[in-house]
Hints:
The chain is α/β, with parallel strands linked by helices. 31% of the residues lie in helices and 27% in strands.
Amino acid sequence: MASAVQAMVSSTAAWPSPVVLDVHAADDMFKHSMDMTSTPELGVMAYFRAGMQIQDAVRQIATWHSGSLRAVERVCDFASGYGRSTRFLAAEVLPDRVWAAEILPEAVEFQGSVLGVHAVLSETDPADLEIDQRFDLIYVSSLFSHLPDRTWAEWLDRLWGLLADDGLLIMSVHDESTMRPEHGVMGDSGLVFLPITEVAALDTEDYGATFVAEHYVAKAIVEVTGSSRYRRLPRSLCFHQDLYLVPGTAGFSDRELNFVKGPNGAVDESAFMDDGTVSLVGWSCSVDDPSGPVEVEVLLDGVTLSVTYLERGIARPDVATHLGDERAANCGWRISVPMRRSHRVAESVLMVRAVASDRRFVLHCAPAMSFFDVPPPPARRAELFAAERFEHLAHLLRHEGLAGVGRKAAGVPKRIASKVKR
């Protein structure tokens, strides 16, 4: 699996310095990726892919505001966890220009010692936060999407106060449009807070699940900054969370912001056919224009294979519901790829990507053998299987690194079942 992760990372961007791929065994986001996917291969890929998606969003916004991300002198990744995206930031702008703030002590130690960035221990109360820097760029992914009303504006005030005059704050939120019936109803206040979290070490009174209306965010920005200047980018963080951009006292750049979300998709099924081809079934569409053209690329060890479309425009109402856009209702496909079973294939990496307007999104990247159609493991309770799988993979990560996870994944090839969550 290590070779698959490296292939995906190296194909996504030209990193000025090597990307550290070590994962801490207690990484909650890694566990979340494993729990939300059906195989170890998908879980590992999804974790690193999300980190690169966050980095791509930061890169696009920093390029608009500052000319380029690499021109930014001091960057703070606030509420950075165990470095899912910080590792990519450090590889792009160099570790000595990156500050990572996190409330979990183990995560702070890991980021400082392994990723080599300036690691800062955060606090529950924003007034207790001790940072003696001012930053050109602060990005906060998945903090304001978890805060209660009593600390929401206080954290905005504390972080905005750490900006240089010409700096920029990027923060992500769950918009009210992402609420499901079980989340309740958005009231006049514009904020719904649910005391639930996937991070066992945090108090659900301080860190839960938060949904906001734009008028709530706008009011908080005015109260904190004295200005109504902000920009909202709907569903621009990993196709789910909204991004809000808040400038320092100097205001926004005069450049035009052309933020591109790019294509999205998934490989849902795969099978090795008798004629020596691999059949893949899935979906893909451009999030910027779901009715626009999207192609599927398949690469074996970096070499592009020929793709034959057996079906296009397959009805996928589940995807339209998932994306909240009816234009994506017919984005399914079934393709055939020539690839004979051999010893070489058993050791190779197969990558499937969606391509739209020169933007590429990795749908799946794993040892080629994991794409072959084999019987699934015996049925087990999903929560028990997920817990045992994570514990075992965490053990491998702790003692053998990604290579150990790769051996485990390669030894248990499975049918891909990355269905869109309904």
